[in-house]
Amino acid sequence: MTEKIFSKLLSAFFLLVAVQAAAMALLFIPVVAPRLLGLSAGAAIRVLGPSVLGSALIALVAAVAAAAWMALKAGRRLKTVTGFTRRMADGELAERLPLDREDALVPMEAALNSAAERQANDLQEVENRRQELAAMLDSMQEGVVAITADGLVRWSNMALNSIAGAQIQAGRPLIHFVRDPDVLGCVRTALESGEARYGRASSLTPGRIFEIHAAPLPAGGALVVLHDVTRVEAAEKSRREFIANVSHELRTPLTSIQGYVETLVEEPRPNAATTNEFLGIIHKNATRMNRLTEDLLALASVESPDYHLALQPMRASALVRDAIDSLGGIVVDSDVELESTGAPDALVLADADAMNQVFGNLIENSLKYARSGRRIRVGAQAVEGGVEFLVQDFGPGIASEHLDRIFERFYRVDKARSRDSGGTGLGLAIVKHIVQAHGGRVWVESELGSGAQFHFTLPLAPAPAGEKMASATA
Predict the structure, then answer these.
(1) CATH number of the domain at 140-228, out of 3.30.450.20, 3.10.20.600, 3.10.20.440, 3.40.50.300?
(2) Which of 12, 21, 371, 418 is the most buried (most CB within 10 A)?
(3) Cα 225 from Cα 341, distance rounded (Å)
(4) How many CA atoms lie less than 13 Å away from 377 in the CB half-sphere?
(5) Termini Cα distance of the chain
(6) In tens digits, what is the pLDDT along the chain, a chain of 474 residues?
(7) H/E segment holding residue 444
(8) Are 450 and 370 in contact (CB under 8 A)?
(9) By C-alpha distance, which of 108, 180, 111, 174 is closest to 147?
């Protein structure tokens, strides 16, 4: 670059020197000088010739030096501009050209600076959008992965890494990380047909079910989305089981009522004793249906998102005492003793009506199995951060395989005994939801032949201001 500039400048200077020499030789010395100096042309040439030649040589040297200096300066400037444009092309956009001169290159340098600034802003905007998109994809619960036409991973989000159980790397085949045949089949079909494909995967992650959506991308390849429907499937299964259980529970007493009513209707002169017996059976089944309806409504209430408790500070000892006093009547005719094991005076946050329902369901449940033990114990003890309540019977106990499911809706350890005693199979499920709504937990401990112990906890309530001041003074 510098050599080209130097050669062009030197050529220009040579041309100027040549023009000057020609003017001196052809015009000044033979015409102008003789008139000015009063000499003949030959004499003027002899006198001025050496001077003209010397000045020409001096001008030539000066021209070479000036050309070299100007070429070097311009070459450096152009080299700086060229390097700047190359760095722009490589994506280095933080640098700017200095604009502290006043020459013909300044507008070009200013334009390059403006171009670099716009490009930097555009790239920053693109990067911001890319980061927003990546953050949005990583925040999704669904697993998302983009696949090239060759089956290589372009990118994926964090959810897919969790589903696959490995860090998915871009540029490697999807089959290295996801081996589920349903997923791979949907991807392959979407790539080959160019149409969206749907499917279900149940072996991708143990115990989880995914819906697959594989759609082709405009630029080639495919986008795969894995949506976890495990909870939806579980809820749907629970709904079906719930409907089936309710239908079964209602069908049995309805069938009994219908049969006895038809018998009474078809009998022209029914026997009084038979009629009373049949009406008693009908009343028993109607009562059973009424209890089932009430328990269904109670369960629907405590499971509803709108269920609210009127929490207030209550003494644990008062809760136990009220439970024994209010529920003692249900054990009077059962030859079972309801006794207290004591309870601390600690304050807990509780809804009085809800707690009465909890104790009622637990004591009624224990009463069904406690007749052989002849007693039910109710009590409480202080634990870290709360109070643990106890309802214990001394009946036949519960086998270990039932302990994890005993709080499920309609689950019965002994189906025949529960139906004979009028149980609906919803009492313990209601207890679980009420206790959890209080912020506590509920569980059962039992061994065959040793009775069962139902435990639940309630959190402590803040102490009243008066008690805090008394405690501080003490």
Answers:
(1) 3.30.450.20
(2) 418
(3) 57
(4) 17
(5) 95
(6) 445 544 655 566 566 666 666 655 555 555 555 555 555 555 555 555 566 566 666 766 666 666 666 666 666 777 777 777 887 777 777 777 777 666 666 777 788 788 888 887 877 787 777 777 667 766 677 888 888 988 898 888 888 888 887 788 888 888 888 888 888 889 888 888 888 889 988 888 888 899 999 999 888 889 899 988 888 888 788 778 778 877 877 888 888 888 888 888 887 777 888 888 888 888 888 888 888 888 788 878 887 877 888 899 999 999 999 988 887 766 666 778 888 889 999 999 999 989 988 998 898 888 877 666 678 899 999 999 899 999 998 888 888 888 888 888 877 766 555 455 556 678 888 899 999 999 999 999 988 888 899 999 999 988 665 554 444 444
(7) strand 442-446
(8) no
(9) 174
Burial of 189 (0-12, 13-18, 19+ CB in 10 A): middle
Look at the block and give the residue holding tokens 């372009």: 154
**Are the C-beta atoms of residues 407 and 429 closer than 8 Å to each other?**
yes
Q: Tokens at residue 440, please? A: 């506590």
Which residues, listed in sequence order, are joined to residue 210 by a DSSP beta bridge? 201, 228
Residue type (1 letter), 1: M
The CATH code that applies to domain 233-303 is: 1.10.287.130
Taking residue 465's Cβ as centre, other Cβ atoms within 10 Å add up to 8
Judge whether 313 and 462 are in contact, CB under 8 Å.
Answer: yes
Q: How far apart are CA 261 and CA 267, in angstroms?
A: 10
Q: Is 50 exposed, middle or buried (0-12, 13-18, 19+ CB in 10 A)?
A: exposed
**CA 73 to the chain's CA centroid:** 61
Long-range contacts of 84-87 (CB under 8 A, 24+ apart): 84/112, 84/116, 85/112
Domain locations in the chain? 2-89, 140-228, 233-303, 312-465
Residue burial 147-184, b: 16+ Cβ < 10 Å; e: rest: bbeebbbeebbbbbbebbeeebeeeeebeebbebeebb
* Pairing assessment for the beta strands 210-216 and 442-446 based on DSSP bridges: unpaired
Alpha-carbon gap, residue 312 to 77, rounded angstroms: 83
Superfamily of domain 312-465: Histidine kinase-like ATPase, C-terminal domain (3.30.565.10)
